[in-house]
Amino acid sequence: MRALVVDHTSPGHLSLTDVPAPRPAAHEALVRVEAVSLNFGEVHEATRPQMPDGTVLGWDAAGVVVQAAADGSGPAEGERVVTLGETGWAELRAVPAARLGTAPKDADPGALSTIPVAGLSALHVLRRMGSLLGRRVMVTGASGGVGRYAVQLAARSGAHVVAISRNPAQADGLRALGAHEVHPEPAAVRQPVSAVLDNVGGQYLVDAFAALSAGGVLYSVGRSSEADVVLSPDDLVGTGGRHDRSIRTFFLFGDPTTDFSADLTWLAGEIAAGRLDPGISWRGPWSRHSEAVEALLGRRLHGKAVLDLE
Fold first, then answer.
1. What are the residue boundaries of the Enoyl reductase (ER) domain, all occurrences included (predicted)?
2. Burial code of 15-52, b = ≥16 C-beta within 10 A, e = fewer?
3. How do the residues of the chain divide into helix, strand and coil, expressed in percent and rounded to 5?
4. 273-301: per-residue pLDDT in tens?
């Protein structure tokens, strides 16, 4: 089968080549991949010298089951699915039922492929915040993959969404997704917020933490700035009696036993029905992968990059 593999001699450190097809375990379905979406973290990982040539990466993929799991778990042959795994940039992937959600047959596989990492991360962090009804919730990196899903889901949960995006051209689009306020940086926010989903790190995290009200929580999800975080004693103490604030880290795969199937299925249904915008900002055949990777690494994309398999 064909796959997109690490190749340090090629543009974007990736190339299309033939690799052995996967052999699914009894609890895994074999999925014919139709589309994949790229995350900054994985394309950046491909550029690292220590990443071996020939490695197949890719968390996010959507397609059709061509062989159901032998143990009877998961969807049947012929079902359209959205999948989460580690080797998605290939024509076939073996996926356990816990990381596979079903989708309507007429759903766009490219839109579905944006869901796994971005959609699940936003959904699970917002759940950790508790009831959002009437609360001010800040989302940094709001025009990115996780951020766009977080803005939409928080707004639908009744939150007053404070979106942070460095690109002023994104403001109208974020308001259309449900943001009530759009600011270029957390330091520009004047009223305290009760919770933060931070995708950026660095000084953004420091300033977002300063915006928390008493008892507020900041969830560190990403570090797109690649900058270190330095919190001084004054940053931690806060002003105006805003104490008992906390910072929590989040990793989607922190508990390897988590069953994502129900959430993937729900998100797929919302995408298919048009109730969630997948935020695709670049799309093309996987033969043009180097263009998508270059745009991602150059920070020129706001939203998701999707590759359709030919």
1. 9-307
2. beeebeebebeebbbbbebbbbbbbbebbeebeeeeee
3. 30, 30, 40
4. 999 999 999 999 999 999 999 998 888 88
User: CA 57 to CA 24: how far, in whole Å?
Assistant: 17
- Is the pTM here over 0.85, yes or no? yes
Closest CA to 62 of 243, 272, 303: 272
Which stretches within the chain are classed as H helix? 40-46, 109-112, 120-128, 145-156, 171-177, 202-210, 233-237, 261-272, 289-297
How many Cβ atoms are within 10 Å of 251's Cβ, its own excluded?
9
CATH architecture of 119-249: 3-Layer(aba) Sandwich (3.40)
CB–CB of 222/197 below 8 Å? no
